[in-house]
Amino acid sequence: MLEFKNQIVHGAIFDMDGTMFDTERLRFQTLQQASRELIGVEFSENYLMQCLGLSARSAEQLAKERYGQDVPYAEIRQRADVLELEHVRNYGVPIKKGLLQVLERLRKAGLKMAVATSSRRAIAEEYLINANVYKFFDVLVCGDEIKQGKPHPEIFISAAEKINLSPAQCLMFEDSENGLRSAYDAGGMTVLFKDIKTPNESMLAEAQYYYETMEDFLIDLNQFVPVLEMPELETAFPQTLNQLTVGIHGFGAIGGGYLAQVLSHWDGYTRPRKIIASTRNPLYQSAVNAFGTYCIRYGQNSFDQRIENMSVIDAYDLEQMQNMYIESSLVAVCVPEEALVSEAEVIAQGLYARYLAYEQQEQPLTLLIILNKIGAKQLVMQQILSRLQQITDEQTAQHIMDQHYFCDTVVNRMVSKLSDQKLYRQLRIKYNMFKQYQLDEDLSVVDLDDSTALNAEQEHQAGLYIEDLRRNFQPSHILQSMDLILFNAETDMPIYVENNSPLLAKMRQMILVDDIANIQLIKNRLWNGVHAMMAWYASLRGHQTIGVAMSDHAIRKFMQQALAQVKHGLCYQIPKHASELERLAQSFTESCAYAYQDPCARVGREPLRKLEHNERVMGSLSTLLKYSLPFDVVLKGAVLGYIYALEQGECEQQELLMHLQIQLRHMALEPQLYETLYDEMSQFINQIIAGKLSLQKFMQLDLQQALS
After folding, report:
1. For residue 442, what are the CA distances in angstroms to 432, 436, 437, 438, 473?
2. How many Cβ atoms from other residues are within 10 Å of residue 582's Cβ?
3. Among candidate residues 124, 125, 149, 147, the one with its CA nearest the CA of residue 53
4. Is the whole-model pTM more than 0.85?
5. What DSSP character marks residue 256?
6. CA 595, CA 120: separation in Å to the nearest integer?
7. pLDDT tens, residue by residue, 418-435
């Protein structure tokens, strides 16, 4: 049962041609070709328009009135059926945009559903099966099964009876004048869509609801169907594929190990028919395309989640990248900050290609900006606009930018991507399994070398493995159960997204927010800042991964204390987000505990960038000082970052101290506090580097009292 616009609905009855499928134009073409072949005269556009919604019997009578009593209408119709079926079998049924989402929502709302079509059953069934929508309908009533065709109400009355409802309990969907009259006289709740023929006044008078497109009805329907709750980790993806293609610009850890899951859950009713992802890693590209799927591993839950309908393209191939931007309704831009300049050029080329492909008609694209930075959207948009202005004139460039939806995001999941070496070993094991199954061969043991880069021989061999697997793959084959693990991830589910695109209104795994900047601030300081400080400390104590480091009492204690101080500062800075602070702090702690595959080197990279005055660590220190809150643990974290930078050879000691001086000046501190902080921090750095102060003793110092 569905309450739609204050009406209680129990059933939905759909016309087929012109309503669900964009086949009326195709039907016109095939009837004209068939009539030309058989009688040497092409059926006129006017005659065909009058036939819309008529039964075959009524259309034949009209043909005899127009073209003579001896017109072989049955033969013409039969020949048109053959031509139409040939087209459908070769190219598929042209489905109206939004249909699958509508059908899935109506079915999940508990409605009984039927088709009432003037087409013969043989044709109707083939179309419904070809379009993969037969599963939605309980009953099918066809033109060759009734005595009186449309505009007589018999077909809709019969369909309602067969699903044990009265016509008044049913929404009845039509596109033609004759079909609408049939539904109206049957007593149903009439829904009219515009198709070939623009509705006249009498049609609009008989339509209880009128929509230009199926997608317009979907927008209305969305207001009356429930938004599905956030999925659990092991919740299955929707079975039904919608008509959308989505893109992931950057098949890295977040793109492949998180966004692919978000997009696969979609709104919980349907999911995109295809996900296109770009990568510069040929091994990942060929492996995913060969297997057709890949998996994200959640070690904490011993769960491997399979991602399907994924096509991975070469990020170096500009034409492929442009096509991704042309085809997609949504693109998640997952690029690191250091690659932004070069990738902005590619994005600009993609948006310009889309502009040209749609002949300058506005086709809004939703772009999710996945960049671990406060104010990421503005930074990305500035770069893209700058590149567009190099491609076209300023007015066109701005017009292109204005027609799309750019949405900032906050990701709070820890994901790591398998190294090429680990993927190679996995491929080799699976290849051996495949050959053992296929030929029962005695194969060699896999070499477990842990170096990160493949040598030339390994690259060549990996290519051979993939090609052999791809060539021999069959749906019923053993390879179907050989899941290819590409990413290790923690279990946190939601992604925060700026509420800036109508496409995102029902997305199941997204939390839409209006003030995304504050959520970005929380993520930057609470997750990224504490994560970085923890990684620096763990690395300096000799740990390789975050999960293993959590077994070290000193690391765990430091993480908890740093988290508490950062959260305290944020509570003062943005008090209205206390609930998000608590949730993100809890999920961060839980994620760290199981992050056994998350390298400290990855988390702690680029320490000087993370120690800039407005960034994750020094930003928290500045906030704590501003509100006169305890800051000693965060200050220790900053010192650890500088020590780590020196150990990694990121800069010389003098350059590092200059960096510290500049960041403290930018914090606009009182002169005395500035001098004290710089003197103490630089002294600690110098003493630790010189070996005069051990890391352990430094971490035991009561800096709060000393600096007070």
Report:
1. 9, 7, 11, 12, 21
2. 12
3. 149
4. no
5. I
6. 59
7. 877 877 777 777 667 666
